[in-house]
Specification:
By secondary structure, the protein is mainly α. The chain has one domain. α3 packs across α5. The radius of gyration is 14 Å and the shape is globular.
């Protein structure tokens, strides 16, 4: 993560360390998924821990499965 990004978004030390080494593609999928369903800002989503983002992604997936009567796995199923 660039220092400019950290300064612009006011990222604290924990935020910077928690995303270091995290696969960018996975992070972008989580951000896109949560932004689509919750309409949260990029900053709100990236301030969540990885565990929190996955929790919400999994909960949204469970709700969608129930509503659609689906039983197949999606990318956020554990």
């Amino acid at each position: 993560m660039s220092s400019m990004y950290s300064q612009v978004y006011g990222a604290n030390k924990f935020f910077t360390i928690s995303l270091k080494g995290y696969p960018n593609e996975s992070l972008q999928e989580e951000i896109s998924f949560l932004a689509y369903y919750f309409h949260w800002s990029h900053r709100e989503i990236t301030e969540l821990s990885h565990r929190e983002r996955l929790f919400y992604c999994n909960e949204i997936s469970k709700i969608n499965k129930k509503l659609n009567g689906e039983h197949k796995k999606n990318i956020f199923d554990v």
